[in-house]
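Quick log. Single chain, no ligands specified.
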Amino acid sequence: MKRIITRPSPGSATLLDATNEGTRHIQRSTLALMRSQHALKLLEEKTALAEEEASRAPAPRTRTAEDRKRRAAEIVGSFEGDFVTAFGKFAIAVCGEASGKPDPRITKAPSGGSEGSLVDGGALVPDQFFQLKRTLYDASALAGFADIRETANPLATIKIPGIDETSRQDGSRAGGFVSFWDQEAGLVAASWPKNKMIEFWPRKLHAATRVTSELLNDAPMLGAYLLNGFIEEGSFKIDAAMISGTGIGQPLGYLNSPSLIAVAKETGQAAATIVKENIDKMWSRLPAPSRKRAMWLINEDAEQQLQALNGAVGTGGALIYRPPGAVSDFGGRATLYGRPLEVIEQNPALGSVGDISVIDPSQYIIIDGGAKSLMSLHARFDNDEVVFRFTWRVDGKPAYASQITPYSGSSTRSPFVCVASR
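-> predicted structure:
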C-alpha cells in the first residue's frame, strides 16, 4: 500500500507559520508599548524640571521704552572717533534727541523720580567719556588734591561718619581712641571713639553755553569747544567753592568753616601787605601731620609781597620763599617753607582774609556724583541757537568741624590757616 503525501500549495500558511507570526506581532507591540512608556516618563521629568525652574525664576518685568533703547544701544555701539570727536557726536545726538530724532545711544538722566525730557533731566554722559571726570579734577588747581569719594546715590542726602577730634590729648585723638603701656593700664579711663555725622547734599553745578547751528555740523570742533569750556569752567567753580563756598546750595569752603584759623596781623602792619611774621605764625598753627601734605595758596596780587620775605644773605636770614624756576623738590615750582605754592585767582584780594593760606587739602572731603550720574548734558533751542547745559552733582566741606588743641602747647591747630584782614 502506497503512502500519499500532500504538499501545501504556494501562498498557503501552515498552523506553525501562523503561530510564529502571531508571536512576533505580540513582541513588536510590547516593545512599542515599552518605548512609549519610557518616552512618557522622560516628558514628565522634563516638565517637572521646567516647572521647578520657572518657580525659582523672577517674575518677568515689563520692558520700557528706555530699556529697549539701552538694549539697542548695546547693539549699535558707542560714539566713534577720538575722545574729542566722539564727544562732539554725542552732543549732536543729544541735540537730535531733543528735537525729536531718537538715538538708541542716548540715555535720559533722571528728572525727579522718573526719566524725563532732555530739557529737564538731560542725557547721561556715556561710560566711554568717564575719564572726563578725572580730567576735570586734573585741570583744577586745588580740588584734585582733596579727599574725593564717589557715591552710588547722587540724588540722595548722604551722611558719612567723621572723627570728632578737637584735641590731640590722650583719649581725644581720632575722636576718642586711647593707647597705653601695660603699667599704665590702671591709670587710663575707658575711652570710646566719638563720631560725628558729616552730611552732604546733592548740590548741582551747572555750566551752560550757546552753540550755533554751523558748529553743530562739525563734530570735532563742537567736541573741543564743549570739552574745553566745561572742564575749565567746572574746575574753576569747584576750586572757588572749596575756598570760599557758603555751604548754602553749594559746597562749604574752608574760609567759612569753624575749623579755620585766621592769624592776627602784626602790630603796625600796613594795609594789604604780607610780612615774614605772618608766614611764620601761619606755619606754626598747622598740625605736624598736615605739614608733609601742606600747600600754600596766594592771590595773584599777593605774589609780589613774597619777594621781600627772605632775610638778607650774610645776616643769618633764612630762604623761606623760592620763586618759580628755583631748585626745589617740586620740579621748579615756587615753594614756601619747603612746600609747594600755588598762585590761584579764586583766593580773596590782597589784604582780605584768605589772600594767603596754608592748607592740608586731604582734609577736605568732596562727595562726587558717581560714575553713572556724575554728569549730564541738556539741550534746548533758543533763537536759532542750541543751548547746552552741563550738570555735575558734587558737594564738599572740611573734615574738621572745629580747631584742634595740640598734644603739647596751648595754641590751637587746624589744617586750614590764613592771615586775618589787614
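Residues 302 and 350 are 6 Å apart (CA to CA).
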